[in-house]
Amino acid sequence: MSPHNTLARWFSLQCKRAKTLLLLIDAQALQTSNSRNRGVGRYSSALINGIHSVRPDWKIEIIENTSLEPIASEVRAKFPIRAFTPPLAGGPKLIANRELNEAYYADWICSQQADVYLCCSIFEHEAVVPSFTTIRPPRTSAILYDLIPLLFSEEYLRCPHDAEQYTHRFRQLCQMDTLLAISESTRNDFLALEVEKPPQVINIRGAISDDFTPTASAEKTRATLQRLGLPDDFILYVGGCDFRKNMPGAITAHGLLPEELQQRHNLVITCAFHGNNEKQYSDFIAQQGQTETVQLTGWVSKEDLQALYQSCRLFFFPSLYEGLGLPVLEALQSGAPVVCSNTSSLPEYGGRISFMADPESPSELAAALQQALSVPRTQFQEERLEFARQFSWQNTGERAAQVWEAQTPQRCPTSFRPRIAWVSPLPPVPTEIAQYSLELINELKTQFDIELVVDAAAPQVAPYIADDFVVITDAELSSRHAAAPFDLFVYHLGNHAYHDYMLPLLHRHRGVIVLHDFFLGGLFCSAIERGYWPISLEETLAHTGNRDLAELLASGNTSLEFIQHAVPLNQPLFEMSDSVIVHSRWAWQRVKSQADIPVSYFPRLHDPTSPPLSPAEQRQQLSIPENAFVIAALGVQRETSRIESLLQAVHQLPSNLRKECLVILCGADSAKLEHELAAQLAELQLTSKVHCLETTSAEVLSRYAVAADVCVQLQYPIRNEISPELLLALGQGACCLSSTNELPEGVSLTVRTPHHEVDDLRNLLIDLYNHPERAQQIRTNARHYVQTHHSRAQVIPQFSFTLSQTIVRRQQDDQPWLDRITEFVASTPSVLPENLAQSWADLRTEALAANVSQVNQLTMCQSSGKLTKRKISA
Fold first, then answer.
1. What is an example of a GO molecular function annotated in this UniProt entry (predicted)?
2. Which residues of 609-647 are buried (b: 16+ CB within 10 A; e: fewer)?
3. Which of 500, 593, 642, 873 could serve as 714's disulfide partner, Cβ 3.0–4.6 Å?
4. 654 vs 611, which has greater pLDDT?
5. Sheet holding 710-713, edge to edge
């Protein structure tokens, strides 16, 4: 046999094997007390059989939760059972242990190597529903019965616990690849919610068993009616005490019929009553004066129900909402005329051969009843039977099977873009980091799905930001992450109390730190004071290897101020992080020496616009004398900006230059600064030469940067970082004197801090005054440098690449799963089984191996198919 034929036969064999799907069905709906004997359980069982009847070559296996009632013997006899045991106890503890059980169950399902996973009912409180992380089965589906709790939330979700439970499960529903709706009405209800990134929703319809027929033994039927004490020609209502079944509406509508019709056609109500419901409805019937014309049978057997359908004059079903409405189909298939509601799925399953009315209008319902009673019972019976025959479980099973056969297997979460939790202060919080963070997310939002995480105690985020992004508080983050896991957490950390809320989050959710300040002593002091850091400052110092300082602080022999300036206190945060981003080479070198994680350096984003006005025009706008020699300091902070040294240098300038000088100090608290400098200004005779301007506005600072002859941007202690204000001034083409060594020669002039500040400042100011052409060259170099190295085109790709690579690395190391499981274990109130950690690790390994195997098999089959076709055609 030639190699070509061998390859072709191999490929044909692979394709045949691909058709024999392994369908793993989560049948806990056949076990729970809420569903196993009700409509959801009956639908699930019938659908399973329907799929099997149309795809007998498929391997269909059933998941049984060993902590619930066993699956019925007739199902066990027909299908193989895969037993799943939740790692933690069920019963009252099930909800408390929910997240851990669900994560474990997800890995268990992935390890089973099924082609399709089908959940028969997600909204089962006793059941365990899988919560998938980075891996999942190739195809995941769930049956969508209805959205009744959402549509009638005041009735069903009044209790906060019920609302939380439903919300959690609804999010799990939305994470499936496909939802199999039981009616077009249910499908449309879901689509109307406009869920972000919704699953595919397909209507597979429903059906009823063949047990319901129009013919019956007259003698048997008569015996049933006599046993139940029922008259001939009665109107049958089959519903329940649930308010949406509208039993009061049915009773009221019947009471609006002419008395002669009420007497001839009693209303027979058949349903199970619980508690004192039967008495309540008996009292209601008495109040309506219908005791003689309305009868309550209570619950009846399936055989009795069939007899009632076959013998009733008509079937009445004025339900407010039905996902499917099986009783309507049962009645039609039994040959009974039907009067039902004109809402939800009932027009689909009642068809044009039924009488319909508004369920909230008793008068319209009564009119429909009267119209139906005017038509002989047998007149349209054949049409009713023909309509009911359209609905079969084989048809429903075929629709479901075609959905999975048409799907491309999913190998990763369905999210189109990686989801990022962006933890940062934002405007109107008065910090430069907040504004910078906003600039970044506006650039990155097309590549990532970004949600903003802010301090619950901070001012409300500006409306123009909330309109573009989902904004959640630190208190909401964990539940949001549990419902729809983020791919990455990004923390913008600075040395200020604005950031202290981030420390508990970082402890629970590892992520990327964007380190705006290398020294974080102020942050830790605030976090400890507010209870955001679990240990004392002395313990934190000891943990970072500064035991001597810890002892000095404990004994009162050193101050907090000294500690904050002497010790970075950033090591604990690096231990909780995946990677670090810094904006200076100085910080990069130091973080690299401390942190055993990736450290990325790239310049800070700053894309300056061209100054709208020339320096002369800006001076005119700002009321600055045209011939003044303007020295500006932007973003002044008394403790670090070395203003006293600047004033000393100005005082030592030659008298002719000093006379022309105008010093403008722009900062956050000008009144306080002016008061603190008053004595020195008076002593140096500079009071009239110095103006303190209170502003942090980037627009205002930019205008003064353009108007100034020189911008003096000193900082001590020296961190060799380019401050935001220095970068702003450079971007506006200002001639800057700075203390950083981060800038290339010719972009700014360097002042040696702290011991040579006064001399260097004096000499440089004189030189620039005497050589304006040199100052102009520095201005040109500064603006060109910022445009070249700090532009969006340079910085954003680097930032995006770093985030993407971190996400990839986390997924390769299975870090999202490990983080999530660690959190679940830490927060679980129960005592964990002794071998859980090892067994779960083994299970996850199997799940990962299965995922890789399926990917390789799919790729191999596809590649071989292309190769085979190519060789055969050749």
1. glycosyltransferase activity
2. eebeeebeebbeebebeeebbbbbbbbbbeebbbbebbb
3. 642
4. 654
5. 690-694, 661-667, 629-636, 710-713, 736-738, 749-750
Q: With beta carbons less than 8 A apart as the criterion, state whether 26 and 118 touch.
A: yes
CA distance 299 to 296: 9
Determine, yes or no, domain membership for 546.
yes
- Same-domain pairing of 187 and 273: no
Provide the residue type at 67 as one letter: S
What single DSSP character describes residue 614?
A: -
Residue-wise pLDDT for 171-195, tens only, equals 899 999 999 999 999 999 999 998 8
Instruction: Order across the sheet with 178-181: list the strands.
Output: 81-84, 59-65, 22-26, 116-119, 139-144, 178-181, 200-203
- pLDDT range class, residue 670, cuts 50, 70, 90: confident
The two tokens of residue 380 are 């349209």
The whole-angstrom separation of Cα 298 and Cα 273 is 6
- 415/569: higher pLDDT: 569
CA 116 to centroid of chain Cα atoms: 24
Contacts 24+ apart (CB under 8 A), 410-413: 410/136, 410/138, 410/139, 410/140, 410/177, 411/138, 411/851, 411/854, 411/855, 411/858, 412/134, 412/135, 412/136, 413/132, 413/134, 413/136
At residue 866, the pLDDT reads 35
Instruction: Identify the three-state secondary structure at position 503.
Output: helix
Q: Is 188 in the same domain as 222?
A: no
Do 231 and 122 share a domain, yes or no? no
Burial code (b: 16+ CB inside 10 Å, e: under 16) for 17-51 equals eeeebbbbbbbbbbbbeebbeebbbbbbbbbbbbb
CA atoms 317, 322, 324, 326: torsion sign: negative
Cβ burial of 61 (10 Å; 0-12, 13-18, 19+) is middle
Strand partners, 450: 420
Which of the listed residues 203, 235, 268 is the one where a domain comes to its end?
203
Do you find a cis peptide bond into 413, omega within 30 degrees of 0?
A: no
Q: In the predicted model, what is the mean pLDDT of the chain? A: 88
CB 533 within 8 A of CB 540: yes
DSSP alpha helices (H): ranges in 56-213? 73-78, 98-111, 148-151, 153-156, 160-174, 184-191
Asked if 202 and 179 touch (Cβ cutoff 8 Å), the reply is: yes
In a domain, 399, yes or no: no
Between 643-651 and 757-770, two packed helices, what is the crossing angle to 10 degrees? 50
Q: How many Cβ atoms are within 10 Å of 518's Cβ, its own excluded? A: 19
Tell me the two tokens of residue 5. 């034929």
pLDDT in tens, 827-839: 676 677 878 878 8
Cβ contact 583:604 at 8 Å: yes
95 pLDDT band, cuts 50/70/90, is low
Name the token pair of 491: 């923390």
Count of structural domains within the chain: 4
Report the C-alpha gap between 64 and 62 in whole angstroms: 6
DSSP string, 376-415: -TTTTHHHHHHHHTT--HHHHHHHHHHHHHHSPPP-S-S-
Instruction: Note whether residue 606 is domain-resident.
Output: no
| Residue 265 structural domain | 218-391
Residue 715, SS3 per DSSP? coil
Same domain, 377 and 241: yes
Rounded to 10 degrees, the C-alpha dihedral 619/621/623/626 comes to 30
Residue 20 structure tokens = 């024999």
**Looking at residue 488, which CATH number applies to its domain?**
3.40.50
Query: Domain check: are 562 and 681 in the same one?
Result: no
Residues 316 and 424 in one domain: no
Q: Are 735 and 711 in contact (CB under 8 A)?
A: yes
Token pair of 653 as six digits: 């300038």
Which residues lie below 8 Å from residue 416, measured CB to CB, with a gap of 6+?
197, 449
Assign residue 723 the CATH number of its domain: 3.40.50.2000
Domain edge (last residue) among 789, 812, 843: 789
Q: What DSSP element (H or E) covers 750?
A: strand 749-750
